[in-house]
Amino acid sequence: MKRLLAVTALALVCAAGAAAAVGASASGSGTVLFGNTIEHIAFSAQQVAGTEATGEATINDASAGVRVHVDVNCLNVVGNYAIVSGIVTQSSDPELVPVGSEAIFAVVDAGEGRARDFASIANFYAVETGVDCTVPSEFDLVPVNGNFRVQPA
Length: 153
Prior knowledge:
eight-stranded antiparallel barrel; mainly beta; globular; 153 residues
């Protein structure tokens, strides 16, 4: 009987730990028109602990003629607002956006229906010269053609 209780207790502890590991998520795609900049952002990110996250993003900046792939490592969700950041792993123009640089952008999920979602353009920084999703930052958000889904934890 003691062994059965110990196994049951262990199973409950493991299940609680697994449930705690599931955090906020954000995903979707949309086209951002900001001034002369036209960017298409597609991404999926899931928190694993705190703001630490896994996922990926593809950013196609039509104005600059560059397409990058980002390994998402940070997701900060507050209500329907998400800041996403990560490391560039592929770039069609490494001189313009070097592999290994950091990327960051923000999205707002306005819900399903007629309201449009919002997003910022992506910003790129040399490692440790910019901010990641943990740093409160100001983003210029504009309505997008697309749909984002932000799910708080």
